[in-house]
Amino acid sequence: MGKVTFLNPEFLWLFVLLPFAIAWLFIKRNQLSATLKMSSITPFKGNRTFLAKAKPFLYVLRLLALSAIIIAMARPRSVDVTSKSKTTRGIDIVMAIDVSSSMLANDLKPNRLEALKKVAATFVQDRINDRIGLVVYAGESYTRTPVTSDKTIILQSLKSVEFDDSIIADGTGIGVGLATAINRIKDSKAKSRIIILLTDGVNNSGTIDPRTAASIAKEYGIKVYTIGIGTNGKAMFPVAKDANGKLVFKMMPVEIDEKLMQEIAKNTDAKYFRATSNKKLQAIYDEINKLETTEIDEKKFYNYDEKYKPFVLIAFVLLGVEMLLRNSVFRGIV
């Protein structure tokens, strides 16, 4: 009965009257049966038949029938809800990630790049109805994964992102990274298109000015959310490699061109965020997730299965049995 509801639950209050009905039957039990006056009943004492003792059972049948009628009046029914959803507004997203050597700084744990990959993976999994692409940049940039709805491909590609100066020149080319991201999304037919541009430094490489790239994004109606990653003050940065090829770290000041990042975001009707810790980085992606929501048209279909008919049938059967017994088996029983 867990899924059963009542259309008219107010009728269930009639059960409050049942104790009074029982009390009334008990008080009037002698007046409801035929009586025989005799000068003495001594010969009949201790000789009550089974039927005479069972006759009150007829009132139990009547009370049970009344209870069934009350339940039927309350209209019990089960509800089966079917939901059909259709995405009415899709969003295409490109994540442009800085993979320069400075992203190996360990002010975020275990380092900036690994912290970002973990948070970005959660973001991808949350965007169930959207398409996502991945662009990486340092001194140069390239598309790692075109915009796709296959989240498995995106997650695998994101997991394998790492700094490798043998593949991409070191440096921070914010302009070329943004331009590549724009190129991947500018022809999208999606209702909304956004870029999440993350960096931990100052634009010092590339042939495209970041402000020029931002102007192009604005012309295409693309929002660019910018994120500056890194603590305030100093952090341990990789500055060289030793004889064994391992990175050598040194405490260096954290430099992020926040003014540029704020300008890019503002000019494209988006927002700039600063991630100074793993927790803040997660909060930033959560906020972007809330700001850019996909509209879903959901329709619910309710199928009601009426349950009152069995109770009506039970009530009629009980009343029928009660009348039949009263006028046959128990007829004439005092």
Structural account:
With 334 residues, the chain is of the alpha/beta class. It has ten helices and eleven strands. It has helices at residues 18-27, 50-54, 57-73, 112-126, 151-159, 174-185, 210-219, 258-267, 278-291, 308-326; strands spanning 4-6, 76-89, 91-98, 131-137, 141-148, 192-199, 223-229, 234-241, 247-253, 272-275, 295-306. The strands form three sheets. It has a six-stranded mixed beta sheet with strand order 5-4-3-6-7-10, with helices on both faces. The protein has a three-stranded antiparallel beta sheet with strand order 1-2-11. A two-stranded antiparallel ribbon has the order 8-9. α6 runs parallel beside α7 and α7 packs parallel to α8.
Features:
alpha/beta; 6-stranded mixed β-sheet; 3-stranded antiparallel β-sheet; about 325 residues; about 25% strand; single chain
What's this entry about, in short?
With 334 residues, the chain is α/β, with parallel strands linked by helices. It is 36% helix and 26% strand. The chain is built from ten helices and eleven strands.
Distance between the termini: 42 Å
Structural class: alpha/beta
Radius of gyration: 39 Å
The proportion of residues in beta strands is 25-35%
Q: Helicity range of the residues?
A: 25-40%
- Written as H for each helix and E for each strand, in order along the chain, the element string is EHHHEEHEEHHEHEEEHEHEH
Major sheet: 6 strands, mixed
By DSSP, the count of extended strands is 11
- Average pLDDT reading: 85
The spatial strand order of the largest sheet comes to: 5-4-3-6-7-10
